[in-house]
Amino acid sequence: MKRIAYLSISATLFLVLACSEDSLEPFLSDEESQEDTGSNPEDPSDNSFVTDSFDGTGPLVDFVINNEVALPEVTRENGRYRAELTDNSDNKTLHFNDDQGRLDAKLVTFPFEFIARNIGIGTLDNSQTAPTPSGSLYIFSGVQVHVEDLNSINSAHVVVGHRGNTYFTIEGKNTVNGDSSVNDIGANTVPNGRADIRIVGNEDRTITVYWQVPNLDYETTDDNWTAYNETGDLPGVAPTFGNNVYVGLITYAFGTNGVPFVGTCDAIQISD
């Protein structure tokens, strides 16, 4: 059999034939699939529908990076986001009050939906095995929504990990002008140290937060979301967000207990 693909190159249509033993289906390269969505990553008003499953190994692709020096070892590894946190001297990775660690983000426009799949913490040897907690420790990976000015200390985040003596939990935090309000959903609510996180950016430029135990078959199985602490609201006063915000992944620690570890995520999905 033969498989047919139609490629648009320099506004000219070419017919390409490729051999296949058992298929007669159109196929597109990754580049062509991205072009056909009609989305423009340079235009934050055109969120459309974007999925990044971190295919391959190497640097992240098409992310805006803030404060890279705080956490230099962030990559794609075998189809996952992987952030190796091996050095937290001077709490340089921390996101709390005036501290802003590393953020790998996409610029999006309200309204939007951002989902991070199977995000959380792991060991250096196995990102899918959560570190065994001991004593009081603060190690997390999750999603942050940051005002468009990355120098401004105004953000909200939802992260998965160990929080003090509350292990295997999800933490929510609002930071306004360098003043953070924080709480969590309780111990052992995410027993594997990972979750799916869903953030809905509403028409009024507020956010509503949801979570679930990872749905590893999300392409074929329906999600079952739970509102963060029943309301979907994060603690304290929320930042005043403009039309555009940066939404992306963070991995951080407070202190050195529990370091080293890795932040991990299978995929992100963005839609408007």
Task: Give a written overview of the molecule.
A hairpin with a 2-residue loop joins strand 1 and strand 2. By secondary structure, the chain is mainly β. The N terminus is likely disordered.
β-sheet strand percentage? over 45%
How would you describe the shape? globular
Binned, the helix content reads under 10%
The helix count comes to: 1
- Calculate the mean pLDDT score and round it: 87
- Any low-confidence stretches, pLDDT <50, length ≥5? 1-42
Please give the radius of gyration in angstroms.
Answer: 20 Å
Q: How is the main sheet built?
A: 9 strands, antiparallel
Key features of this structure:
single chain, about 270 residues, mainly beta, 9-stranded antiparallel sheet, 7-stranded antiparallel sheet, 1 helix, globular, disordered N terminus
